[in-house]
Amino acid sequence: MQVRWEELVQVSWINNSDVEKDSNAQDIRKETKKMSKEKTIDWVATEIMLTHSLEDRVRVIEKFIRIAQKCLQLSNFSTLNQILLGLQSPPVERFRRTWSRVRVTVRHILKKLNDYISLSIIGRYHIPFLALYLSDLVFNAALPSIEPAPQPPSLFQLPQQPLVNFQKHRTTAAIIKRVIAFQSLACGYTFQIDSDLYAKGANLSS
């Protein structure tokens, strides 16, 4: 899905207006709704909680940590962030006996991943956690575009005119520039699609 910058400026995926008739705008709303369910986070936590054997649960946790490490190697910050949030969810953290059995080397990997989530290093291409940027756009869109004139004029008796909130528009532009950059960087991936796995995933119930 290719999101146009005009749709991001208009925050069109949350407005009930004619812009929703645009197919891309509808796709944005669907994707945002999907992200809000935090399916990956819930999946990670559920897989761990439904594993009753202590030894198996340790292996599941270590497996997710290795998957998160692979996401970091691919600069897939979106999935990395969601896996870490699932591992740090309160129900999972309550398995203290399980965590005590996780190998020290694997726990060290988890610590390094948590430290890295600040995105301090960016590689050739990566997938960001897009929900953060969409929430920033929504928050920024709620700010007033026009600010009241200062009271009273300090030096000259000029007509009282409202002022354009340029800071709001600068913030919008900065966020959208980053999203556009991510769209270009995401093209660096050259994954081969596994047709059977893709078909099974498409048939999963939401």
TrEMBL record:
<protein>
    <submittedName>
        <fullName>Ras GEF</fullName>
    </submittedName>
</protein>
<dbReference type="InterPro" id="IPR001895">
    <property type="entry name" value="RASGEF_cat_dom"/>
</dbReference>
<dbReference type="GO" id="GO:0007265">
    <property type="term" value="P:Ras protein signal transduction"/>
</dbReference>
<dbReference type="GO" id="GO:0005085">
    <property type="term" value="F:guanyl-nucleotide exchange factor activity"/>
</dbReference>
<feature type="domain" description="Ras-GEF">
    <location>
        <begin position="1"/>
        <end position="206"/>
    </location>
</feature>
<dbReference type="InterPro" id="IPR036964">
    <property type="entry name" value="RASGEF_cat_dom_sf"/>
</dbReference>
<dbReference type="InterPro" id="IPR008937">
    <property type="entry name" value="Ras-like_GEF"/>
</dbReference>
<dbReference type="Pfam" id="PF00617">
    <property type="entry name" value="RasGEF"/>
</dbReference>
<keyword id="KW-0344">Guanine-nucleotide releasing factor</keyword>
<dbReference type="InterPro" id="IPR023578">
    <property type="entry name" value="Ras_GEF_dom_sf"/>
</dbReference>
<dbReference type="GO" id="GO:0005886">
    <property type="term" value="C:plasma membrane"/>
</dbReference>
